[in-house]
Specification:
Chain lengths: ~100, ~150
């Protein structure tokens, strides 16, 4: 599966457009990571636990996006966009959407 | 009295350790930016210049969550009374963005170019008092590989 965030895939032509596909996941932080982050808040710097948590969440949302595209019979997803929103205190939603297409 | 001592300890810890960590982080960012200067990253939608025959392209991304220290948080709080430039948040966001772009580049050192770079910033996991303690920056783009 070819995934890009450009409208066209360089070097390939799009033959069929199958519409918008999306994948999302909501993740909450867990207490252990929260305590570490609380300590890190005093001296500042990177919160590695959160960085990992969010990139894992993004991988999961990406898997769901790909699964949906495969269901439609697509072999590529173009114009992929990411969006993050905090739904409630302590939880974040990761949403990925793009256009499923068939390329030659 | 005890509360005051704790407050003073947190502020000085934030000031000294925070400043040291920020300096170290900036040094590391500048060093890595120099190393990766040859990997062209643009916001253009097509590869820039004559790149030759393209073999494949793929989505790449890099993210970083960076938190502000206690001293700067207090200073930013005071700033909110008088208004004006909040320098403490400027450096926080600046180094998060640069770190995210560096991670994006480091994830695909073999690529010829990274096109259509987009940067998204969000304040993650907001605290109870709705204060911006940490920001997450996600940088993503399309890595183009040539034959």
């Amino acid at each position: 599966m070819i995934i890009t965030n450009t409208e066209e895939i360089p070097g390939k032509t799009i033959t069929t457009c199958l519409g918008v596909v999306s994948g999302s996941t909501v993740r909450a932080k867990h207490a252990g990571r929260d305590i570490m982050a609380g300590l890190k808040n005093i001296v500042g710097g990177e919160l590695k636990g959160y960085t990992e948590l969010l990139s894992e969440a993004r991988d999961q949302a990406m898997d769901r996006l790909q699964a949906q595209a495969q269901q439609l019979g697509a072999n590529a997803i173009v114009n992929v966009r990411f969006s993050t929103s905090s739904v409630a205190a302590g939880a974040s939603e990761i949403y990925i959407y793009g256009t499923a297409v068939i390329v030659e | 009295m005890t509360e005051l001592i704790i407050f003073a300890a947190l502020i000085s810890l934030g000031f000294f350790v925070g400043q040291y960590l920020e300096k170290r982080h900036y040094a590391s960012i500048q060093m890595r930016e120099k190393q990766l200067i040859n990997l062209v990253t643009t916001t253009s939608k097509t590869p820039v210049g004559d790149v030759g025959e393209i073999s494949h392209c793929t989505l790449v991304s890099g993210n970083a969550v960076i938190s502000i220290d206690y001293f700067k948080r207090i200073v930013a709080g005071l700033r909110a009374i008088f208004g004006g430039t909040v320098r403490s948040y400027e450096t926080l966001i600046d180094r998060s963005r640069r770190e995210a772009i560096l991670r994006l580049k480091e994830s695909c050192p073999e690529a010829a170019q990274i096109i259509n770079l987009r940067i998204e910033t969000s304040s993650v996991f907001k605290g109870k008092k709705n204060d911006v303690g940490s920001v997450e920056v996600l940088a993503y783009g399309t890595a183009v590989y040539i034959k």
